[in-house]
Amino acid sequence: MAETEKGANAFLPIIAMGIIILVVQFMALVLAKPMDSLGMQAVEDPQSAANSIYYIGFILLFTLFILIAIKKNIKWIIQLVILGAVASTLYYGFFPLLYLWGISETTAMIPSVVLAIGLTVLLYKYPEWYVIDIIGIVIGAAASSIFGISFGIIPALILLGLLTIYDAISVYKTKHMIDLAEGVMDLKLPILFVIPRKKGYSFIEDTPTAGGEREAYFMGLGDAIMPTILVVSANIFTEYNGLISPSAAGAMVGTLIGFIALMVLVMRGKPQAGLPFLNTGAILGYFIGALATGMPLLG
Known about the structure:
Blueprint: H1 11-37, H2 50-71, H3 75-100, H4 105-125, H5 129-150, H6 153-173, H7 176-184, E1 192-196, E2 216-220, H8 221-236, H9 246-266, H10 275-292
Antiparallel strand pairs: 1-2
Helix pairs in contact: 1-3, 1-5, 1-8, 1-9, 2-6, 2-7, 3-4, 3-5, 5-8, 6-8, 6-10, 8-9, 8-10, 9-10
């Protein structure tokens, strides 16, 4: 979570960031069930805790890859890889949505591919802040849904716990996550959400000042995705009556409370790791929601 400024002007962008997280979570819940019925899980056994370890290992390797690419000044490789990931994730986001609307699997493939490629090209040609944010929301919802249906409740809890520790270490101790964010900022890719500080802002033209400040607020895409994995998992792997399970609703409320606590500290002007607040809030909210309604704690 990037540094912000003090004052009344900061509140609207902060509210916008909170709304973005909620939009990602609601969209992820909408996508999750059609994804689940289509068999779009990323793993064979969603209940295996080993999946969490494998995913953390992948994150570490991918982070190392990006840091090496930044050091070697070959950022075009990062751009190529991330744009490829953007296109594929957009496809997996549009496909179940079209299927949900009653379009057959075969028919849904064509418009999904066209939309995914078209938006990826738009992102590459015109990476303005609203283009990045809209695409980031779709990517965040799709990725959250895929991982949410792929991680049972115990693996999801383990994953969020490990990511909380990793994010804290990478921001406060090694600080390599800050270096990574600064290194890829100029690539203008949807790895973060951009919220302008004032009207007329252009992310394409934005450059840091002498003090390193920019004319916008930034929130990492992972800050929206990671707690949403538990929200989706709690809604898929628990039995309940209604549109959303109490434990999933609790995780959503907990994420929002964690976000508010995070922003209280960020408003003081210091960068903060987002996941220790957001993931912890989601986990506590999940347990409170389950306990309050007498649901099994672990599905």
